Amino acid sequence: MNTGKISARHRIMRGVLWSTIALSAVPAAAASEDTPTYDIVVRNGTIIDGSGLEGFRGDIAITNGRIVAVGEIGRSKITQTIDATGLVVAPGFINIHSHAEPEAVSTAANMLVQGVTTEIINADGSGSVDIAAELSGYAAKGLAENIGAYIGFNAIWQDAMGERDVRPSAAQIAAMRGVLERNLATGAWGVASGLDYRPAYYAKPDEVIAILSAAAPWRTNFPNHDRLRPEDNLSSYKGMEETITIGSAAGLTPVITHIKSAGKERGQAAKVLEMVAAASARNNWTAIDIYPYLAGQTLLQAFLVPGWAADGGSEAMLARFRDPKIRPQLVEAAEYAMATRLGGAEGIALPQLGKRLTDIMAAENIRAGEAVLRTLERDPLTYANMTFGAESDVVAFLKYPDTAVACDCGATLQNRGHPRYYGSFPKILGHYVRDTGAITLTDAVRKLTALPAAIIGAVDRGWIAPGMRADLAIFDPAAIRDHATFEAPTRMPEGMRHVLVNGAVALADGKATGARAGAVLRRDAHMPSRRMTPATATRRLAATARSSGVVVTFDLEQRTGARTASGSIKLTDTRTGHIWMAEHIGVLQTSGAWASVTATLKDKTGSRKAVTLTFDGAGDNVGKSVMSVALAEDQPIVMTAEGHVQTD
Prior knowledge:
Elements: E1 9-21, E2 37-47, E3 56-63, E4 66-71, E5 77-83, E6 88-91, E7 93-95, H1 109-112, E8 116-121, H2 131-138, E9 146-149, E10 151-152, H3 153-161, H4 170-186, E11 191-192, H5 205-212, E12 221-224, H6 236-250, E13 253-256, H7 269-281, E14 287-290, E15 295-299, H8 300-304, H9 307-310, H10 314-322, H11 327-342, E16 348-350, E17 355-356, H12 357-364, H13 368-378, E18 383-387, H14 391-399, E19 403-405, H15 420-435, H16 441-448, H17 450-456, E20 472-475, E21 496-501, E22 504-508, E23 511-512, E24 539-547, E25 550-558, E26 566-573, E27 578-591, E28 594-602, E29 608-616, E30 627-629, E31 637-647
Parallel strand pairs: 1-30, 2-5, 2-6, 7-8, 8-9, 10-11, 12-13, 13-14, 14-19
Antiparallel strand pairs: 1-29, 1-31, 2-3, 3-4, 6-20, 15-18, 16-17, 16-18, 20-21, 21-22, 22-23, 24-25, 24-31, 25-26, 26-27, 27-28, 28-29, 30-31
C-alpha cells in the first residue's frame, strides 16, 4: 500500500528500475552540426506543466510521440509549428472516472474538445472480467484518445454471484481473487467499485476486503461509489467512511469517487474532509475525485428501490411491485430515499422521457413513491438526473489538495441527458478558475493532469517535461467555458484550441481532426498509486542497474521549487561501448522507496532517445528484484538495481 507519507529519510536498497527508452526520436545529425529535428514544436505558449507551480513562457519540442525538450528551443529543424501565443499549454487531461462507449472512442470528439486525452474505463466497478479482450474491442477501430481500464469489482462479483443476495463460499472468494489478480497482471489501473449498485451492494465489507486484498501487492487504488444503506440512514458520510475502511484494510489507496455530501447532509463538506485528512494522517492516504455539477445520473431504481426489493434482478423486483402487501412499503421506501439523499421529488428529472417526476405525479394525481414505481414498471432501465448537493460543498471539495477532477462521463456519440459529457473540464477552467476564482489555474491544471496520473500510478503522462508522452491541451484561458446544460446537454464548449495525443494533432482550431493516435494503456507492478511529491520537497535518486549488455547509472536531485531534476544519467551498451548521456531531465517523482524520472538522452553523434526510468525499492514485494531498460518502445529489458531514494 502507498502510504503517501513524505519524510526525511535515506534508505539504501535493492529494487527495481523499470524504464522504457524510445528508439531515437531524432535522426542522427552530423556531430559538428548537432541540429535536432522535431516533428512538432509548440511555440510561445504559457506552459502550465502539471506541478502546481506558476506557468512560464516557452516552447515544447515533440518527436515520436514524446516531449524531448521544454523551454527555449534553439537551432533545429521543425516539421510543424503550432503557435500558442496567448494560450495556455497544459498536459492532456486524464479522466479517471470514465463511462466511455466503445463505439465512440475512435472519434472521442466530445472529450477532445474538453482537452481530455486519456480515459480510464470501468468506473463504478462496471465492465468486463477480461479487460484484455475488452480493451481490444475498444481499440478495434482505432483510438482518438488513450484508453486504460480498471478491473471492476461489481463485474467480478456479479459474474460469480449473479443477481441474488447470497453469501460467497471460500471457493468463490478464491475464484474472485484469481480474476482480480489476472486482470491486474493484464494491466488494470486499479480496482473500481460501486458498492451502491446491485448486486455488489449485497457484498459484506469483510467479503469485499477478502477479495480486494489480492490486489495489495500491486499497490494500486480502490475508487468506490460509496454505499448508502438504510441502516445508516442513507448517510453519504457513512458511505465514504466505508470506502476508506475497506480500501485501507485491503491494502489499497481509497479513492472517494464523484464525492458528494448528499441530501440531508448537504453543507457538511468540512466534516467529510476532516475524515479524509485524518485517514491520510494515519498512513491511509485517501484521494478524491469530483465533477462540477449538483445532480448526478443513474438508473432511477438504483437509489430509490431498496436492495431487498431488487434481490434477484428486474423481474423479481417487478413481481414485488405487484404484491399489494409489499407495494406500500416500496412507496414509503422510495419517498424516504428521496427525502434523505436527494432532498425530495422536486430534484428528479427523467431525461429519456423529457419530464420530471413531479410532472408524472401531477398528471396521474399520485404521490412521489407511486410515481417511481409506475415509471419503473413501464421501463425498469429508466435513467434519472437527481439533485444531491450544495454548491458550497463542491467548492470546498474542489479546493482540497488531493481532489482530482473527473467527469463521470466519457466519449459518446449520443445525447446522454447530462451536461457533464460536454462541459465538465471547461466548466472547471471557466467557472471555477476564471469567473469565480475558487481555485487557481495552476492548481486546476494539476487536478486535471499530474494528480490523477499519480492516483492511478501513471509515470509518463500528466506532466510537461522532457521524456513525457506528448499529450497536450492548448486552450485560451479567457475564452474557455462550458455551454452544455441539463436542458441542452450536447452544446459544445469553447476555448479548447488544439489537443495532441501521443504527439499527433487530434484537435486543431477546436475541431477534431480524425487522427487515431491514441493507445491502449496498461499499468505494471512498478507503477504504485501515490500522493504527488510536493513542489516544496527536495528529492534525490542515485542508482545503478545492470543486465547482460546494458548498464544504467544515474544520480539526480530536484530541489525545492524546481520544475525538473538535475544531475546525470548514463546508459552504456557494454557489448558495443555505445554511451548515451542525459541532455534534458524531467520531473523526479518519489514515494517512499520508489522514484521515477523521464529524460532525453543523447549520444556523441547527436542522436537522441526519450527515456522513462522507474526505481522500485519495494521490488521484492511484487515478485521481482530487477531493473528493466528497453531499447525499443514498450519492450523493457529486465535488470537488477541498487540505489537509494531520499525525500525531504
